[in-house]
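Long-time lurker, first post. I've been practising inverse folding by hand and with some scripts of my own, and I keep getting stuck on stretches where the structure tokens seem ambiguous. Below is the full token string for one chain I'm working on. Before anyone asks, I'm not after the true native sequence, just a reasonable design that respects the backbone. If someone could post their per-position residues I'd love to compare against what I wrote down in my notebook.
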């Protein structure tokens, strides 16, 4: 992802979190409102993990332009959302205009309450 897309996605996520209210946010998920304004602009790296494969160095050296490396995730399964390498939830890939985006399924690992303290 380029920096511009990261910034756009970060702004969308923060804006979405700002729009949460007590009626729609369950289980403390409205903690974004309680974060100090200064903390809301701290950049983080949001990644979407498709899967992984454990291969030998010899297999790695044999990979070429038409190679296919099977991953440990099944097709159609939700992908793992990570923030700075830590899993926070699951999502699926969507097309947002001319770019890829993510549709959040759940955010079980996002603990904003811990950040606000």
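-- Answer (accepted) --
I ran through it position by position. Result:
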């Amino acid at each position: 992802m380029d920096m511009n897309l990261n910034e756009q996605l970060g702004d969308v996520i923060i804006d979405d979190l700002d729009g949460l209210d007590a009626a729609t946010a369950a289980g403390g998920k409205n903690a974004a409102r309680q974060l100090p304004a200064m903390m809301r602009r701290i950049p983080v790296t949001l990644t979407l993990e498709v899967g992984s494969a454990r291969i030998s160095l010899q297999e790695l050296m044999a990979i070429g332009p038409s190679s296919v490396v099977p991953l440990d995730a099944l097709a159609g399964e939700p992908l793992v959302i990570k923030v700075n390498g830590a899993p926070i939830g699951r999502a699926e890939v969507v097309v947002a205009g001319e770019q890829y985006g993510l549709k959040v399924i759940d955010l079980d690992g996002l603990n904003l309450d811990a950040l606000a303290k």
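A couple of notes from the structure itself: Residues 29 and 47 are 20 Å apart (CA to CA). The helical segments are 3-18, 37-40, 57-61, 112-116. Happy to go over any region you disagree with.
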